[in-house]
């Protein structure tokens, strides 16, 4: 079922299941000047820490997931299978460890740089595929594991809640800016991609995407993970 979601302020101190639909249609930008790339977020997944068997934080804090336990308003960047980077926005009060995985986006600024990054990392034939999928999105934005913990500024409005930033240099270099959606978006929900066990079923319908958007990843309910 498609739902129309009205835009609103982005409060990253809220739980990830509340933040996730608000991120659809929002813009995330990295860098400045000629190094700036901006994407419009079209697909996300919510993870609820200790209450979610699909979350990296389900069994507690580790060196890998430490950023998730920090204050909201930072990015949690990890390597998937030792090959690809994935980018998450940390939500909820410090110690709660909830986050939203950014699954897919449309590049709306800095396409030339995004193309250069994607072609250096592998094959890319269509503009729709520049940031279509979590690993591609990370490459297009130029985010790597060294950016784990970088600070995010929410614009317009006040700065997102901040605190310890493990890599202040990365936060300065990337200049991560998140801008809320400017209008309503039609969204759909379903089970998350590539999550094993019950956490990847309809019992956890915490994947959200913009209905009909061509930049959403190939996965659809009933088709299995790509």
UniProtKB/TrEMBL annotation:
Keywords: DNA damage, DNA repair, Hydrolase. The keyword DNA repair applies. Its EC number is 3.2.2.-. GO terms for biological process: base-excision repair. The keyword GTP-binding does not apply. One of its GO terms (molecular function) is alkylbase DNA N-glycosylase activity. Pfam families: Pur_DNA_glyco. NCBIfam families: 3mg, PRK00802.1-3. HAMAP family: 3MGH (MF_00527). Belongs to the DNA glycosylase MPG family. This is Putative 3-methyladenine DNA glycosylase.
